């Protein structure tokens, strides 16, 4: 019998969040774009509990004083450099190499954009860049469309994690095609991280309920009215969604089923 | 006075008015990177309302206070024979796409919640006020409080006023603030020359964090690329126009003499003085989307300036914790606007030994996240 003092059940320990041999307690990866100030960003990062945060290499000078890199270092959060803003595989590979040199990390979040209005990933350039980066010894976490076939190709290429979008970057539209995300998860051979499109906490929870291993988000926190509070909400949502996934949800039914059985009641 | 920008010149002028002997060492900024000071590069918006955001309501109060000081400040400058190019034409904030309109509407709600007076306009109403706007402007917000000045004229005006009042300007690159027994006693220049003073004021803009100081002052350069077009004989804007344009932000600030300032990028690139293809192209593109006639204007200048950024985007005013060293730096996006208040507050701190209430929340000792104990935010 569970007493009121008993600790709450834990999520099975058999499911640590591991990417390329590195294990994380937090399944929430943060981005830094859009924060109104360094101070607000810091508050949000702390509240999110994140251990890994992505930074656009085109938009920061890693050596600059007071930079976001310095902030992450002070908070003990690992930097995941990304290639945001790149269109071609050539640019993408070049920025990955710059990041490796500047930050002394082999990890790269690969992002090759195919269209400026939607910021949707270019599948051809993405696959091309993934092949080159894997060959050069990078640990590649790849931003991709919610296409299960492309996701399989990218995993076969040797990417360390597949990061399908829920909706276009910064749109806050949530997960527009949950079925595709489920298909990607079902066939996964590497971790799946829902990246882009998260608008609010329920979106992050849904990603985890669909079976994603983690969630990456930025705008939903950095551009909202109270970033620290939303970061905390996202942390809880990712945790809740992950727990719900492992708790084994009930089947959905067309008709009601009383939660208390009707038989044997005292009249 | 370390720094001969807007803050340095204004504070020096005010101190001289009170009978103080002031020497302004004008470096390091203008010497290392001519023209890259915020005093020269910026657009001169006096815009507490359109510059605010959801997380900076404390700074908003400071900015509004300084705005109220502007008319008298301009009159006093005029008494010295100088003209800072102050104009009272209001600001139109416009939206292009439906997404931009939603964002502008969200901002208008925020203004309502904080008793900031704005007026929502339809596209046609906005274009009656400002006929050069693109018909594709979908909605607008008229912000009467937000006005502008010509920051380059302001800078000249302040240097003129200060010089007339007896302030000495001397070129030099300050390397360090020297101390004796924990009190600031002067500065050491890159040439190893020493200058001693009873009181030191740090007003070195984006370079304030690069000087060897007895206390850490977290100021970093935030790069902005900005351009200047000229109308020539073509029709001109009258309002400052700020736009959300397909997810980007751009502003156009008109000058009496026909120039329009278009800005600006926000980049964490250290002291990178390059104008880039992306920087130039996106400003021209966004300006043209908001006001098609900009494509016909003369392109006079592309430049780069450095905003003095701080961790919470607010300035450091008054005591530094080190006797003899006063701060007037870190004004980030609101430097031009905050000139009158900064000068008043810092002068009062130096001459009367007390910082006015309006500036008290903006000392270096204020809590910033970096210094707060870690906590989890709960509703």
UniProtKB/TrEMBL annotation, chain A:
SUBUNIT field: Homotetramer. Forms heterodimers with either ThiH or ThiS.
Top-level taxon in the UniProt lineage: Bacteria
Entry annotation: catalytic residues: 109
The protein's enzyme class: transferase
Binding residues annotated for 1-deoxy-D-xylulose 5-phosphate, in chain numbering: 170, 196-197, 218-219
Gene Ontology BP annotations: thiamine diphosphate biosynthetic process
Matching Gene3D superfamilies: Aldolase class I
Protein known as: Thiazole synthase
Gene designation per UniProt: thiG
Catalytic activity: [ThiS sulfur-carrier protein]-C-terminal-Gly-aminoethanethioate + 2-iminoacetate + 1-deoxy-D-xylulose 5-phosphate = [ThiS sulfur-carrier protein]-C-terminal Gly-Gly + 2-[(2R,5Z)-2-carboxy-4-methylthiazol-5(2H)-ylidene]ethyl phosphate + 2 H2O + H(+)
Entry GO CC: cytoplasm
Pathway recorded for this protein: Cofactor biosynthesis; thiamine diphosphate biosynthesis
Source species of the chain: Propioniferax innocua
UniProt entry tagged with the keyword Lipid metabolism: no
Subcellular location: Cytoplasm
Keyword Cytoplasm: yes
From TrEMBL, chain B:
Organism whose genome encodes this protein: Propioniferax innocua
GO cellular component terms, semicolon-separated: cytoplasm
The enzyme's E.C. designation: 1.4.3.19
Domain called FAD dependent oxidoreductase: residue spans: 2-348
Lineage summary: Bacteria, Bacillati, Actinomycetota, Actinomycetes, Propionibacteriales
Superkingdom of origin organism: Bacteria
Protein name: glycine oxidase
Catalytic activity: glycine + O2 + H2O = glyoxylate + H2O2 + NH4(+)
Keyword line: Oxidoreductase, Thiamine biosynthesis
Pathway assigned in UniProt: Cofactor biosynthesis; thiamine diphosphate biosynthesis
Listed GO MF terms: flavin adenine dinucleotide binding; glycine oxidase activity
Top EC class, one word: oxidoreductase
GO biological process: thiamine biosynthetic process; thiamine diphosphate biosynthetic process
């Amino acid at each position: 019998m569970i007493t009121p003092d008993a600790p709450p059940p834990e999520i099975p320990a058999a499911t640590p969040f591991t990417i390329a041999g590195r294990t994380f307690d937090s399944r929430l990866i943060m981005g830094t774009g859009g924060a109104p100030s360094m101070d607000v960003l810091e508050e949000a990062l702390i509240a999110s509990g994140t251990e890994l945060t992505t930074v656009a290499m085109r938009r920061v000078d890693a050596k600059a004083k007071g930079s976001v890199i310095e902030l992450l270092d002070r908070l003990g959060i690992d930097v995941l450099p990304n290639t945001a803003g790149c269109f071609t595989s050539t640019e993408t590979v070049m920025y990955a190499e710059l990041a490796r040199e500047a930050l002394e990390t082999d990890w790269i979040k690969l992002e090759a954009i195919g269209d400026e209005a939607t910021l949707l990933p270019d599948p051809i350039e993405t696959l091309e860049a993934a092949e080159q980066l894997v060959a050069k010894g990078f640990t590649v976490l790849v931003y991709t469309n919610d296409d299960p076939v492309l996701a399989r190709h990218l995993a076969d290429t040797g990417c360390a994690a597949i990061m399908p979008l829920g909706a276009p970057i910064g749109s806050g539209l949530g997960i527009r095609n949950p079925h595709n995300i489920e298909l990607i998860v079902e066939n996964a051979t590497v971790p799946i991280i829902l990246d882009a499109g998260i608008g609010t906490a329920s979106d992050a929870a849904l990603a985890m309920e669909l079976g994603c291993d983690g969630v990456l988000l930025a705008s939903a926190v950095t551009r909202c009215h109270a970033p620290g509070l939303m970061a905390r909400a996202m942390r809880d949502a990712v945790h809740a969604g992950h727990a719900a996934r492992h708790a084994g949800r009930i089947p959905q039914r067309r008709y009601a089923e009383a939660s208390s059985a009707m038989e044997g009641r005292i009249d | 006075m370390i720094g001969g920008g807007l803050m340095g010149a204004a504070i020096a002028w005010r101190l001289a008015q009170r009978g103080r002997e002031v020497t302004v060492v004008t470096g390091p900024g203008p010497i290392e990177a001519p023209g890259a000071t915020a005093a020269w590069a910026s657009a001169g918006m006096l815009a507490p309302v359109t510059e605010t955001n959801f997380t900076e309501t404390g700074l908003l109060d400071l900015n509004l206070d300084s705005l109220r000081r502007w008319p008298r400040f301009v009159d006093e400058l005029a008494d010295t024979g100088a003209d800072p190019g102050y104009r009272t034409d209001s600001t139109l904030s416009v939206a292009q796409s439906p997404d931009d309109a939603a964002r502008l509407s969200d901002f208008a709600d925020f203004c309502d919640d904080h008793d900031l007076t704005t007026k929502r306009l339809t596209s046609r109403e906005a274009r009656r006020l400002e006929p050069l706007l693109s018909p594709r402007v979908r909605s607008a917000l008229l912000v009467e409080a937000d006005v502008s000045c010509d920051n380059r004229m302001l800078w000249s005006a302040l240097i003129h006023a200060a010089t007339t009042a007896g302030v000495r300007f001397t070129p030099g690159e300050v390397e360090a603030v020297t101390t004796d027994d924990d009190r600031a006693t002067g500065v050491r220049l890159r040439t190893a020359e020493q200058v001693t003073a009873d009181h030191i004021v740090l007003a070195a803009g984006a370079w304030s964090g690069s000087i060897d100081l007895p206390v850490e002052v977290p100021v970093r350069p935030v790069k902005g690329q900005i351009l200047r077009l000229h109308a020539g004989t073509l029709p001109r804007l009258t309002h400052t126009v700020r736009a959300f344009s397909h997810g980007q932000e751009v502003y156009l600030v008109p000058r009496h003499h026909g120039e329009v300032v278009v800005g600006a990028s926000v980049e964490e690139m250290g002291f990178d003085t390059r104008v880039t293809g992306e920087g130039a192209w996106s400003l021209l593109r966004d300006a043209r989307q908001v006001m098609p006639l900009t494509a016909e204007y003369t392109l006079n200048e592309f430049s780069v300036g450095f905003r003095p950024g701080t961790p919470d985007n607010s300035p450091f005013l008054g005591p530094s914790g080190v006797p003899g060293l006063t701060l007037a730096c870190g004004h980030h996006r609101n430097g031009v606007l905050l000139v009158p208040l900064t000068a008043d507050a810092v002068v009062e701190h130096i001459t009367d030994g007390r910082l006015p209430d309006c500036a008290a929340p903006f000392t270096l000792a204020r809590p910033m996240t970096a210094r707060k104990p870690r906590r989890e935010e709960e509703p």
